[in-house]
Amino acid sequence: MVAISACRGCGKPDPEIFLDLGKTPLADALLTSPDAPEERFPLQVAFCADCSLVQITEDVEPEKLFVDNYLYFSSFSDHLLRHSRDHAIGLIDARGLGGESFVVEIASNDGYLLKNFVERGVPVLGMDPAPDQAQQANSIGVPTRAEFFTLESAAALRAEKGPADVIIANNVMAHIPDLNDFVAGMAHLVADDGVITVENPSVGELIARCAFDTIYHEHYFYHSCLSVDVLMRRHGLFLNDVEFFADLHGGTNRWWIGRQEQPTARLATALEGERAAGLDRFDHYADFGQRVEQLRTDLLAIIAAERAEGHTIAAYGAAAKGATMLNVMGITDDIVPYVVDRNTHKQGRFMPGTHQEIWDPDVLASDPPDVLLILAWNFAEEIMAQQQAYADGGGRFLIPVPTPELI
User: Fold this and answer.
1) Which of 154, 150, 96 has the alpha carbon at shortest distance from 120?
2) Omega of the bond prior to 361 within 30 degrees of 0, cis?
3) DSSP states of 188-225 as a string?
4) In which band, very low, low, confident or very high, does the pLDDT at 62 lie, cut at 50, 70 and 90?
5) DSSP annotation string for 141-160
6) 198: buried, middle or exposed (CB in 10 Å: 19+, 13-18, 0-12)?
7) Would you place residue 66 in the very low, low, confident or very high pLDDT band (cuts 50, 70, 90)?
8) DSSP 15
9) What is the band of 67 on the pLDDT scale with cuts at 50, 70, 90?
10) Angle separating helix axes 265-277 and 225-233, nearest 10 degrees
11) Percentage of residues of the chain with pLDDT beyond 70
């Protein structure tokens, strides 16, 4: 692990730290047994006043994060599948994509998004370093290469297949330690009249919702429209538009990027709103640690009160944010004994650090707990709808963010 001494984006020395979550295990490194060895790494977050980039202060090498132990499969979320299909079909129709076009998705996971282009006869290529996900994508007819996207790989791909009419990079620009190399790669690969769309959770929403659990070692960066605008201009690209999806991952921005500067009124409004909110100033972030501690106090008080009444508690969602939540809150397996998750690849493993076993959600029907802590709160509506029978039987949901609430 390497501590940074300067902003990874612009190089300004010593970005200011505003949050320290202590030492935590890798959030996606699920264990094969509760006694398996695991490493813990410092987790601090800092702000760069020169380029508005929020970032963690120490790096874990990507090979430890996104390869054999990375078990996130996008296709297990119905909401994400609908969102992605709408985006793909919208791109096909708006840009007239067809058999002569070329679409590249970076961090394409299991082919959940690109399969919509394949169905319409649009040539695609996915790139994702996680071997299981790449294999799954290839098995459903989505051509995918199990490799990291870099400027070097982008140059080789352009030489082989020509420029890309569309590049899609969803929930990946937070995961790249060499951010400038990554964006330089997109700038090299995209056609002169092409478009790049990038989705990532909004750092403004992270702060507003006290969503500290979306901070973990796999997320090097937390982006705003302001920071993305600066980043793209550094590489001859322009941020031209932004869409906001309040119900996706706790508030997600979709940025539209191209080689020509063509900003929309919607983008101008978003940039001005971020400046007015203070996302380009350290004082906007300065009290975040105190707010996280208050959330911790409130959540643990609810859990203690429920246990004092003799009530049982389980958790839903073996996602990375769940690992951060459990570890920072100190919720070990003697407090919440198990976690359920629809992702069959995670079932039978154990949460890092806190060691809850991960079970099939069917257990909620056969042996329902009194309270279900929704760790994957970004999909709370979807989860509660899936678990209507549990609720009808008297089960209650505990949603931790932004303020702990029993439903």
Assistant:
1) 96
2) no
3) HHEEEEEEEEEEEE-HHHHHHTT-GGG-STT--EE--H
4) low
5) T--EE-S---HHHHHHHHHH
6) buried
7) low
8) P
9) very low
10) 120
11) 96
